[in-house]
Amino acid sequence: MKSLARIGLAAGVFAWCLPAHSETLRCNGHTLETGDARVSVRYHCGEPLLQGAYCAPVYYAPGLQRVPEPFASSLVPCLVVEEWLYDRGPGNLAATVRFQAGVVQSITYGARVTPP
Questions:
Q1: Are 97 and 52 in contact (CB under 8 A)?
Q2: Is 116 within a domain?
Q3: Does the residue 115 lie in any domain?
Q4: What whole-number distance in Å separates Cα of residue 51 and Cα of residue 6?
Q5: CA distances to 33, 56, 63, 111, 115 from 89, in Å
Q6: CA-CA-CA-CA dihedral for 16, 26, 93, 108, to nearest 10
Q7: Is the separation of the CB atoms in 77 and 71 below 8 Å?
Q8: Residue 114 included in any domain
């Protein structure tokens, strides 16, 4: 059972360390990118329009299988992922910044934000 937990933890760390292809985000004259700290994003871009967090599942080798219950909740911690949505103003696409462990993992652009 301990070996399963170690394998799951190792797979989670491996997946977390994979390079992410992402965009950059420009806020108030500063360019933010993958690897920047959450506090830096908040400082340069201000409060996000929306923010949320979820617990991403952890996978283990071989074949990157999902860690089954009850091991997933008791032995292998989940990877907490935060997402912040920024409305970049008229004519610009909204930016979603994804964080893991307080560091930018990816920046993606989506549809324009329209007021309700």
A1: no
A2: no
A3: no
A4: 32
A5: 20, 30, 43, 12, 11
A6: -10
A7: no
A8: no
In the numeric block, the tokens 């993606």 are attached to: 108
Model confidence pLDDT, tens digit, residues 72-98: 666 667 788 999 999 988 888 999 999
Does the residue 55 lie in any domain?
A: yes
User: Under 8 Å CB-to-CB from 80, ≥6 apart: which residues?
Assistant: 53, 54, 55, 56, 100
Place of tokens 């935060």: 82
Tally of domains in the chain: 1
Residues 6 or more apart in contact with residue 34 via CB below 8 angstroms: 20, 22, 104, 105, 106, 107
pTM, full prediction: 0.67
Question: In which domain, by residue range, is 6 found?
Answer: 2-109
| Range in 8-12, 37-41, 78-82 the model is least confident about | 8-12
